[in-house]
């Protein structure tokens, strides 16, 4: 098995580095500096090995350190005081989320597909050593992260117990999935849950229990954790033995590693299958019409026929925000002690809201639907890429994206203002207006930003694969910019004014770029 594990590492190394080089080769200016025969260089294997080692170190330590810092250390700052029991409490519920959201065995990846499906490696010979390696990286990465970040709060053996608890709970979850396979013949794909509602509902419930209960000093005590740890350790060892001796990996991989689970749709037959799958979400009523003219008429018909795809996620997000607002309002009413915390949170939340809006905004989903169900076919026609048509359609789409995103955003802004009022209000009444207007401005910013990136960097190719490295880099820069801005300590009034002015300026600049460059860049990639 060791030899097979080393082979899998070499394969993973090869395609990871190839992806990096391919991505750089598609960058403007930089891509021209990379020779076409780069893969044949004498020292390419050495360079690729170094890159692979760096990537693995980042995965083992960098990601784990960032994860523990954001979800544990940073989150603890919202409590007035905390001790080791708070760390243990939150960590346990984060581990429970990871137990079903990140299993490795039920994660269909390309290296699994290449080795098991294409190279005919025995499934068990691949899965077992790679799963052990997966657990080992978690053990080392999280143990080092906990000790570095909480060296003055928890002891080394408590940190060790927390990490072992994580490994055990993952093993128990996998053993449970094996049981479901046997009894109900259900193959779990952690990237495509059977029910996204149940999946996100479970995650949100565990997060609420993990982060909300400590507000009321209701945490899992250290002594209780020791008992839970012993029970989990016993079940974990039994489950891990089950994983090592499981004999149905061949069937699991056969079902899990289907082409559609591994690759973005990239063939005509798969495109047809994807179109068939989404057909149920498209209204094909011939009675649908519009009073508009030109490409405004064309776009209006598209929106009316694709309402489920375009608007459903915004409606669900709106309902979710309302539910959270109602729950917090009820808690404030029945537990007056929460007022101070909620009030301070509402006044300081505005910078964080930019980061939250990054996830709430549905612009990427909308542009994806536009490409899949409209532009993918229309871009084959030359007239569709004429400047006046591109600009006309962009204006109509921008209005639609803004309106769709304003539905959950406006509700969020009003809910936050109401919570601020219920929890004691603010000495400056203008803060209510600033909160509402700035959050709406953030929504408009992301609506414009996503559509502008789509038109200027059009990332999809003919086979509906995302093939733009520049688009990916722009998305990553957007994410991290939002994160770092959210860390800025600034009053609600000042941050809100700056945000509103920024969005106005960004809108003007973006429209200038679209008018000058979109007709040249909005086209199908090969």
The residue ranges in which pLDDT falls below 50 over 5 or more consecutive positions are 264-279
In total, the number of strands is 0
Q: Class by helix and strand content?
A: mainly alpha
How many distinct domains?
2
Distance between the termini: 40 Å
Oligomer: single chain
Series of H and E elements:
HHHHHHHHHHHHHHHHHHHHH
**Number of H/I helices:** 21
Per the principal axes of the C-alpha atoms, what is the gross shape?
A: globular
- Biggest beta sheet summary: none
* CA radius of gyration: 26 Å
What is the residue-mean pLDDT, rounded to a whole number? 81
Q: Which percent range fits the helix content? A: over 70%
Strand content: under 5%
């Amino acid at each position: 098995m060791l030899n097979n594990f080393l082979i899998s590492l070499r394969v993973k190394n090869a395609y990871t580095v190839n992806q990096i080089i391919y991505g750089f080769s598609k960058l403007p200016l930089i891509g021209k500096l990379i020779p076409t025969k780069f893969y044949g260089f004498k020292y390419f294997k050495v360079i690729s090995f170094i890159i692979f080692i760096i990537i693995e170190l980042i995965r083992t330590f960098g990601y784990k350190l960032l994860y523990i810092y954001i979800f544990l250390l940073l989150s603890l700052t919202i409590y007035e005081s905390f001790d080791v029991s708070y760390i243990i409490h939150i960590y346990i519920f984060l581990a429970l989320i990871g137990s079903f959201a990140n299993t490795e065995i039920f994660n269909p990846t390309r290296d699994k597909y290449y080795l098991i499906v294409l190279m005919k490696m025995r499934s068990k010979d691949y899965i077992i050593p790679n799963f052990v390696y997966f657990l080992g990286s978690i053990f080392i990465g999280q143990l080092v992260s906990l000790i570095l970040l909480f060296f003055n709060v928890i002891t080394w053996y408590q940190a060790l117990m927390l990490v072992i608890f994580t490994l055990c709970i993952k093993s128990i979850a996998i053993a449970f999935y094996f049981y479901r396979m046997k009894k109900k013949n259900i193959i779990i794909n952690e990237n495509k849950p059977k029910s996204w509602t149940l999946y996100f509902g479970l995650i949100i419930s565990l997060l609420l229990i993990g982060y909300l209960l400590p507000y009321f000093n209701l945490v899992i005590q250290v002594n209780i954790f020791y008992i839970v740890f012993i029970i989990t350790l016993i079940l974990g060892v039994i489950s891990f033995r089950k994983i090592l001796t499981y004999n149905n990996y061949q069937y699991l991989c056969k079902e899990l590693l289907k082409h559609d689970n591994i690759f973005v749709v990239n063939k005509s037959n798969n495109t047809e299958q994807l179109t068939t799958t989404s057909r149920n979400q498209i209204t094909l009523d011939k009675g649908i019409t519009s009073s508009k003219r030109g490409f405004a008429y064309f776009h209006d018909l598209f929106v009316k026929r694709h309402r489920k795809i375009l608007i459903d996620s915004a409606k669900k997000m709106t309902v979710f925000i309302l539910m959270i607002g109602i729950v917090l309002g009820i808690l404030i009413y029945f537990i007056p002690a929460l007022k101070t915390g909620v009030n301070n949170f509402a006044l300081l939340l505005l910078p964080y809201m930019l980061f939250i809006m990054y996830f709430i905004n549905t612009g990427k989903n909308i542009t994806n639907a536009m490409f899949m169900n409209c532009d993918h076919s229309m871009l084959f026609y030359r007239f569709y890429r004429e400047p006046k048509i591109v600009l006309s359609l962009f204006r109509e789409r921008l209005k639609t994206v803004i309106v769709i995103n304003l539905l959950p955003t406006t509700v969020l802004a009003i809910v936050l203002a109401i919570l601020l009022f219920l929890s004691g209000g603010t000495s400056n009444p203008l803060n209510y207006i600033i909160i509402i207007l700035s959050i709406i401005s953030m929504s408009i910013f992301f609506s414009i930003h996503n559509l502008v990136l789509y038109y200027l960097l059009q990332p999809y190719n003919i086979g509906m694969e995302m093939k733009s490295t520049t688009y990916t880099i722009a998305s990553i820069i957007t994410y991290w910019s939002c994160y770092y801005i959210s860390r800025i300590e600034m009053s609600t009034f000042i941050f809100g004014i700056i945000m509103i002015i920024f969005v106005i300026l960004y809108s003007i600049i973006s429209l200038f770029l679209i008018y000058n460059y979109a007709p040249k860049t909005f086209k199908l990639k090969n």
